[in-house]
Amino acid sequence: MKIIAVEEHFTVKDVNDLYTKVLPGDNEMQKAYSKRNAKLASDGVLTDLGESRLAAMDKSGIDVQIIGYADNTPSQLLGEEGAVEQCRAVNDYLYEGISKHPDRLYGYATLPVDDPAAAVTELSRCVNELGFKGWMINGPFRGEFMDSERFLPIFEKAAELDVPVYIHPGEVKGEIVDRYYSGSWNMMTAITFAGYGIGWHYDTGMHLMRLILSGIFDKLPDLKIIVGHWGETLPYFLDRMNSALRPDVTELAHDMKYYFWNNVYTNPSGMFFENDFDFCLKTLNPDHILWGAGLSLRTKRGECRFFFGTV
Fold first, then answer.
1. Rounded to whole angstroms, how far apart are CA atoms 151 and 157?
2. In this predicted structure, what is the pLDDT of residue 175?
3. Cβ atoms within 10 A of the Cβ of 47, count?
């Protein structure tokens, strides 16, 4: 059985440099967070798509990676102007790297979501011409979640192409950061609190729930969505949501458990905690539990009992 890591990342230094330039000038937390990402790009941790990545995969026992752009994506930083060209360039960069190792590396598309028609075209190109395995989105687009009706054509294309949509956390921004995650603690604590400490996961769980409640799986019953980090907190509330958000309340065709069992996939995303694994194995569809390390350049095989994943 191949060990296939479905949540791995790369970045392009020029794109991250551009992101830093367009950051809001009044949010120190966002600046500090993005400075950290820029450092990852500049020191080569995420830019390499060649031998050092393969060596790290071999060391970790990973046979295959499916790679998507890291937290800062052109579609989310540029908006209307320039995003189409930047996303195409990023996808071409990824294709150039992975095509040299076609048995080890695969890709997720980065899409200019603010232009859904262009995003549909680019997703088709990435899947049909470049052989990419899906689309990865990093959080909402400028505060707008993907359940907005204007984004539906992108999901329709993903379902038509039979490729998954990976909803990865993005930076939690604006008033939410100020209200929930800023306090008397230091900046590093605030960044972690708003990020992988917990904020990322609440935000991404909310993103998935909004999509479910919008009826997207009733419209597109074959659509597949992946969320990492053991379901972004949602499996632990699944019984509660199933009893409260019943079809007679939501006007959906099915209950919450149906959509989680049939349409939602998850993986550890580097959270190699056995209790979480055991709980999700009992709660979710076992065939929908995949393997993902987040940054397999920094992971070790053997910290989770089972490994799942298919390309």
1. 11
2. 85
3. 20
